[in-house]
Amino acid sequence: MALDIIVGLVSMFLVPSLATSNIRAMGHLTLSQTLLIVRLGLFAIIAFEAFAVWSYWQSRFWARRLVLAGCVLYLYPILHLQASWNYSHFHAVMTVYGAVLAIFLLWYLNTRDVRAWFPRPLPAAS
User: Where are the domains of the chain?
Assistant: First the structure.
């Protein structure tokens, strides 16, 4: 996730064409206004990822669940690995790398010691 944050920051500020190459003027917005909205949206996503990484480090239970959900999402592109290979070998290799990392994290985050480190939230008193 930290690597996603770094790549997101680099692509957002140094290479804006990566994220915005197919954007045209939307309705009454100019291209520069659209780019600003896209950059602000990307910044909000990156800020949330940074907050989630910090919360994970602070052993917040919801952050562990968020990482587990992200691992499941990283497994989905494996279904389209052949199309990824035809598109770009690098993209296919990164897809496999993401899937292997996701499988490892799914196993590791469910080990007894790690589950004990993330305290379960107490149920609300009625």
Answer: 1-58, 59-126
